[in-house]
Design goal:
402 residues; 15 strands; binds zinc ion; 3 domains; single chain; alpha+beta; 3-stranded mixed sheet; elongated; Alpha-Beta Plaits; THUMP fold
Amino acid sequence: MEAILAAAAAVDWPALGDRALCDSCLGRLFGKLGHGLTNQARGQAVREIARISEGPCWVCGGLTDRYDDLAALVARKLEPWEFETFRIGSKIDFEVAAREESLWAELAMTGPEPLKAEVNREVGKRVSDHIRKEAALDRPDVVAVLDTAFDHVDLQVNPLYLRGRYRKLSRGVPQTRWPCRRCRGKGCARCGGTGKMYPTSVEELIAGEIMRESGGTAHALHGMGREDVDARMLGRGRPFIVEIKEPRKRRIDLDAAVRRINASGMVEVDRLTPATGGDVVALKEDRAAKTYRVLLRTAPPVEEAKLKGTLPVLVGEPIAQRTPGRVVHRRADTTRARRLLSAEVVGVEGDRAELRVTAEAGTYIKEWVHGDGGRTRPSLAERLGAACEVLELDVLDVHDGG
Ligand SMILES: [Zn+2]
Ligand SMILES: [Zn+2]
């Protein structure tokens, strides 16, 4: 307290004139001094040694007396939502902030605390007592933004993130909701009014079952890469994070959600665990190699011995892949360099061959097999001197180290 009183003694208080200040606004002028004190206590001490007019506060107009009411307002707004952590933000009336700053200049204050910081802290403390939950600056579940000019509270409810690995047991299921190409999602004759190219997706099958309990306004599925619509995803499954926007509930029975997802018969998840928005970034950056099962038809039919002789030569050889013809209408036409990490023949029967291939992240496997009209070189078809058609493609593993 001595540091505050010493600083207060050096202030030119007559410059204040007859403008009155409340204890909090007075104390905030010395807000960076005296650890562990409230601004109100600072202000009471300063008032002892400085002549300050009494009356309605010139800076805040009585705002600092209303923290209890404002906290009750915030608590009411939070009531319908289930969350663990929260943070208070505030919008301070522009004119109030301007008066405060002019005062700092007139009195040459060096360490004042802005009203906004006090409102956030004082209202936050009271809300925390009220609802018995901790305020958290880092990644809170909910941010309540209090507009002090209108006594209005806006809630920003942060998403719920859950992670897992999915297996896709059916072909013809895209990873994410795929809007109808003709109507772009509005609904038309082609899509039977659904607005979608496919009846469902991995995203809808997983997120739908979670939202049944969590509620929420929308969802997204972030996958560590994606498989083609007609490729299954088998083995340990593909790592993903599902995001539920504005969930009403966050503590849901995850085992029950997993059971409901698995009951679809199309998608399976072993378990769901909590994740964060930061985990999504890490997931998206991962460059995991993938192992595939490829069933292909060769014309003319290729002998097993020839396949077995050709595959090892292709492993490790740089593959130059131009953006596949099937997607070049929506992606930049570039050339990427990829490699196979291993390739083996599982079996050959007549014109059918089954292979197991492991490739670097981002390798277009179908194109490596058939050559894509020369856009991928070398290709299996090119080296075999036979046309190769992919009949089935499955992802057997995503080597993410997890
Ligand atoms: Zn005040
Ligand atoms: Zn449509």
